[in-house]
Amino acid sequence: MALLRQEVDPGEVGLDAKALDRLDQHFAHYVDEGRMPGYLVAVSRGGRVAHLTTHGHRDLAAGLPVEADTLWRIYSMTKPVTAVAALILVEEGRLSLDDPVERFVPAFAEPRVYVSGSGADTVTRPADGPIRVRHLMTHTSGLTFAFYHAHPVDALYREAGLESSVVPGSDLARTTEVYASLPLQFEPGTQWNYSVASNVLGRIIEVASGQPLDTFFAERIFGPLGMTDAGFRVTEDQAPRLCELYGEADGGIEPIPGLPLHGRPRFLSGSGGMVASAHDVHRFMELLRRRGELDGTRLLAPRTVELMTSNHLPGGADLRSFGSRPAHDEPGNDGVGFGLGVSVVIDPARTQAPSGLGTYGWSGVATTTFWVDPSRDLTVQFMTQVRPKSSHTIFPDLKRLVHEAVAE
C-alpha cells in the first residue's frame, strides 16, 4: 500500500491557502448536512501535492473516517485507463485506431443502424461502414446504455437484459456479442453518445493481448506505475478501507449495493469496474500530465498522449452540439469536446465552470472526478461515494473553487 501525502505548501506552487480553506469548508457543509458521507480532495501543481483534505466518514454506521488510504469505486473513471491500455497496444502494432471492431469481435461484422419504430417493429438498415476502434474510444460508435430513456434503441438494450450493461451471470466476451446483436443509434463516426463502448474496447484489449483485462491492467499499467491498490476487486486485507456506497434518499443518503468487488468479478468492465485509492489516481494523472512517462517508466509516447487528449468529435464540435451528455458528468457541455477516453476543454469561455484550454479528465457515477489542466500544470481529484438521483453542483463548484485558488 502507498499513501498520498501533501508534499508542498500551497503558496510555494502559486496556490492560495485561504481559497483552498474555502473549498474545504464548502464540501464539509455537504457532509454536515447529511448529503455526503465524507470526501477526499487533492490538488497538485507541477506533480507535487499541495492540498490534501479528508473529511467525514467512509462508513457512517461503523463511524469509520475517510482517510488518505480509503478505497473508492471509481466507475467511469475506469474508461481513461481502458483507453491507455488500448493505446499501449496501438503503439506495439497489435491494434490500430482504424481497425474494424469485427477483427477482434466477429459478431460486429454486419452492424445495422436504427431507422424507425420500436420493439418488435423496429426497422434497421445495414451500416454504411464498420465500427472502428476509434469510434469506441470517442463514443461515436452508435452504441448506447440501457438506463437511458431517450431513444428506442435504449429500450432494446433493456429488453436484452442489459439494464446494468452486462448480461446477468455472463462475462465480457458474451456480453459484447449481445451488444453486437442490437442496432446502432446512428452511423458510426457521425454523432456522439456516451455508451457501453469501453466494454467492447476492453474485450478488444483481451483479444489483441491474449490476456484477461484485469491481468493486462495489472501487468502493463498498475504495476509499472505503482498503483498498488487499483484493480477490479478488493482483497480481504483491503476490504476494511473500502468506502461504503450511498444513494440519495429523502433529502439524505442511505447505503446501496455497489460493484461486486469481493472476489474476482466474472464481468471485467472496462467501462466502470475499477476500485482505486487517491494515490492510484494521482499516479495515473501524473502519467498523463508528464505525457506518458512517470519516474523513468514510459508507457506511452508524448504524441500518443497528445492524440488522446485532443478533441476528436466530428467537425471539431463540442458535446452540446449532439444534444446529449453523460448521465453523471458536470452540468453543461458547452465548450467541451471529447478525445480518446477523456473529455477535453476546447473553448473555456463557453464552459459553465472555470477551465483552462486543453483541460482533460473524466468522472464517475458515484461522484468521483479527476482532471489535468496543462495550462496551469494542475491536477485535481475529488472522491466520495454517492450516486445522485439528479444533477448536482458538486463538480462545477469544485472547478470554481479550485481555480479561485490559483494565484499564479
Label the overall shape: globular
**Oligomeric description of these chains:** single chain
Averaged pLDDT = 95
Order of helices and strands: HEEEEHEEHHHHHEEEHEEHEEEEEEH
- What is the number of helical segments per DSSP (H or I, 4+ residues)? 10
Q: Please give the radius of gyration in angstroms.
A: 20 Å
Low-confidence parts: 325-330
Read across the widest sheet, the strand sequence of neighbours is 3-2-1-16-15-14-13-12
> Into which percent range does the helicity of residues fall?
25-40%
Descriptors for this entry?
globular; 17 strands; 408 residues; 18% strand; single chain; alpha+beta
Explain how this protein is built.
By secondary structure, the chain is of the alpha+beta class. Helix content is 27%, strand content 18%. It is built from ten helices and 17 strands. The strands form five sheets. It has an eight-stranded antiparallel beta sheet, with helices on both faces. It is globular. Mean pLDDT is 95; it is low at 325-330.
